[in-house]
Amino acid sequence: MIDDAGGPIDYDDSGAGPTVVLVPGSCSTGAAWRPVIAAWEGRFRCVTTSLLGYGRTAERRTAEDRCISHEAEILESVIRRTGGPVHLVGHSFGGVVALAVAMRNRVPLASLSIVEAPAVELLRESDEHQHYRAFRRMTEAYFADFENGNKEAIASMIDFYGGAGTYASWPPRVRAYAVETTPVNILDWASAYDFALSETALAAIKVPTLVLRGGASHPAMQRANELLGTHIKGASLLTIAGAAHFMIATHAAEVASAVARLVQGEPR
Q1: Residue 38, helix vs strand vs coil
Q2: Which of 90, 207, 237, 244 falls 20 to 30 Å from 221 in CA-CA distance?
Q3: What CATH number does domain 2-118+198-263 carry, 3.40.50.2020, 3.40.50.12160, 3.40.50.1820, 3.80.30.20?
Q4: What angle do CA 66, 120, 204 make, to 5 degrees?
Q5: pTM of the model
Q6: Cα distances (angstroms) measured from residue 54 to each of 3, 43, 60, 165, 223
Q7: Rounded Cα gap, residues 55 and 201, in angstroms
Q8: Mean pLDDT by 10 residues, the chain (268 residues)
């Protein structure tokens, strides 16, 4: 754990080799990356953390101040703790935060891997109104359902990402954590909708970049990540057949292989 002035930040460091910093998404902690780390069989030094409000990482945002910079700052603290340039990998909302870190350019990155980032504002800025509205309709209904007292309202968001029945298929402890952290996830969405993303903004990213999306993901998610792959200069876009949003668990070997090729400088 990092004892930061703004509150504790999860930090776990294991293995040896090139340093890979792995950022989980909402409703999860660094433990979400265990299947991918296991697939690497000790080839890399793996550093994991948790975003604001998850695990032992203290929340710093409020309903009035949910700027993505708060998330970026804690991730930058993690990267500084590693002691050198890192290969940054972010999943879901963690991918959005990783984009913010790369755009701010305040810490040294060797490469960037984005796994299914909900880049909602990029859709809006690109006039992808149908796909943008798909996200908006989902989140508006989800927020209203939660405000009306449905403790498991987050199930609809998870099923939007993973397909019908995804939430029900999760182990009870995983569902319970999603329910417990619903207010944090709602803040995450506010941060994502406030984060300006455009072709011009993405031009600030200068490191080798890989964008991963699932072939079975929601069309709006697929399009958002296709746009990331198009607008980040020199980025590679890879679609993992049969995978949906939670591919770091369901298709860990494929994710691990794709990221490893980038880390090791192999052709993508």
Answers
A1: helix
A2: 207
A3: 3.40.50.1820
A4: 80
A5: 0.95
A6: 15, 27, 11, 24, 28
A7: 31
A8: 91 95 96 97 96 95 91 97 96 98 96 98 96 97 97 97 95 96 96 94 95 97 97 96 96 97 82
